[in-house]
Known about the structure:
globular, 2 strands
Amino acid sequence: xxxxxxxxxxxxxxxxxxxxxxxxxxxxxxxxxxxxxxxxxxxxxxxxxxxxxxxxxxxxxxxxxxxxxxxxxxxxxxxxxxxxxxxxxxxxxxxxxxxxxxxxxxxxxxxxxxxxxxxxxxxxxxxxxxxxxxxxxxx
Length: 139
């Protein structure tokens, strides 16, 4: 399943895909990921192990996106995490860049989406969870 933008450069002008109004444009790679993987979040109620796996992948993505000062400075913290920990908000542009790199890597490795769950599907489902939790597609 191809979830990357057609030219791999973000928006037509090389931007993050936003349309200037604060909402994501159709080119934003997050839109494609949500369309393809958000339905997998509904499987949470049937598989507690899936919740744990996606939570771990979401933490790994968050750690990759948030440098230490943004994680630990206490400013701009929102939302509760495991055991009451609080995290700085994930930025849409940062997550979009991460998704572009990840989906490029999937394309290079000729990854094919399996019926069940593998590393890539769990990671992309975790991205959807972060998009939902941080309201990154709000227009």
